[in-house]
Amino acid sequence: MEEQLAQVIAELAALKAAQAVTNTTFAETYYYLSIPLMILIHVGFLGYEMGASRQKNVLASGIKNILAFAFIVPTFYYFGWFVYWAWTPGLLPTFGEGGSWETAMAFANPLGEVMGPNLDDRATGVFWGAFTLFAATTASIMSGAVIERIRVVSFVILAIVLGSFAWVVAAAWGWHYQGWLVTEWGFHDFGAAGLVHMVAGFFALGVLINLGPRIGKFNADGSANNLSPHNMPLVLIGLMLIIAGFWGFLMACLIVPGEAWSWFNSHMATIYGTPTTLSALSFNILMSFAGGIIGAWVVTRDPFWMMSGALGGIISCASGLDLYWPPLAFGIAFFAGCVLKPCADMVEKIGIDDAVGAVTVHGTLGIIGVMGVGIFASGYPALQGDAGTVPTISFMGQFVGMIVMLLLGLVPGYVVSLILKMMGILRVGEAAEIAGLDPTKVPSQAYPEWKGAHHAAE
């Protein structure tokens, strides 16, 4: 009898061990697959921004996007990931024993045990990879706003500050179950409408204030000229690829069950430990995508704003995609699509030349995303735990978080770009801008056949 009991116990232990391996493998694979999906976001931004540029600046815009991605990877590895852990849970990094400093060192030290292959840690690398792609996304958001006049070196510096520091502090404060915005205010931003989109959008605004408009954008009376994209079909395809990549972005906003993430329950959860499902996300992502398009179509009939509305629709619902009823997600996104173009026009009227509407799509609609949760989801638990023992979502908590995200974007964007401007390295020279950045800065041509045919016709 004892031998049979011992055998059963041994079999149960073996089964549990096998289940742990399976869960860990699933977690590893899940985040690994989210990374190439998120890379589609950067494929989209590459096409979007090259298409939105005039022919004389196409490759220069592409170079910015490629370098943003390339520089964020090592800088996020060497210090961005460290910032995330060090700035949690306090307003300032914790250095004391038992605080987040030791945790940060354990998770982010490039010479530590996360170096692979390490069979005892099969999750940190892929989770780091997903976070790295979030960081790169912030840089790409800012990139489109500043096309056709920013110097490459200054852009790279700004991208690093944004992607490996500014948004990371926002994530530590509002996208971690120990972040002070969450524990003290009940802040909820599941799909990063605030900590990615708002931070990047208002960082771009801070840069644009110092960078100034493109030559020829505004007339002496303040009226604006339309500096048309050279390839609108490429812009639309790029925007659709960003939407495709959004599925990986939102996929990586989840914590999957398993031994790899043992501090959460066995269910699929948000970054805060609250339960959700892929089914709920599928409903709400598609409904917000459609709502944004239809809203922008009703107001503009313009395919550019329709596809921007698709992106804006998802952003306007992103904070609450794990909570919303699908018709509510559609309604919020429809409203966002309707106000998108008027809000972009207001930005232009105050003299800001945002070449692709990034400030509005990501900044303004990011505000709608954050505050929508405060309006429609107040009272829901902000953290995993029993009712009455955890903070709850509230309008005031979302408002505080919204202000924090706005400042974390606008202030460093403005200050760093002002320093670069004072150093005389923020913007290309007037002659180079008029002639075009491709012929003056890039050792290749985007359309050499067209140029030859154009000269032959002359």
For the structure shown, list the relevant keywords.
Ammonium transporter fold; 16 helices; 2 strands; single chain; about 450 residues
Structure commentary:
The protein is mainly alpha-helical and 458 residues long. The protein has one domain: Ammonium transporter AmtB like domains (Ammonium transporter fold), CATH 1.10.3430. Helices cover 68% and strands 1% of the residues. It contains 16 helices and two strands. The chain has helices at residues 2-52, 58-86, 100-108, 124-145, 152-174, 180-185, 193-211, 232-251, 278-300, 303-318, 326-349, 358-376, 395-422, 430-435, 437-441, 448-457; strands at 254-255, 269-270. A two-stranded antiparallel sheet has the order 1-2. Helix 8 (232-251) packs parallel to helix 10 (303-318). The protein is globular and about 90 Å long. The chain starts with a helix and ends with a helix.
Topology, element by element:
Elements: H1 2-52, H2 58-86, H3 100-108, H4 124-145, H5 152-174, H6 180-185, H7 193-211, H8 232-251, E1 254-255, E2 269-270, H9 278-300, H10 303-318, H11 326-349, H12 358-376, H13 395-422, H14 430-435, H15 437-441, H16 448-457
Antiparallel strand pairs: 1-2
Helix pairs in contact: 1-2, 1-4, 1-8, 2-3, 2-4, 2-5, 4-5, 4-7, 5-7, 5-13, 7-12, 7-13, 8-9, 8-10, 9-10, 9-11, 10-11, 10-12, 11-12, 12-13
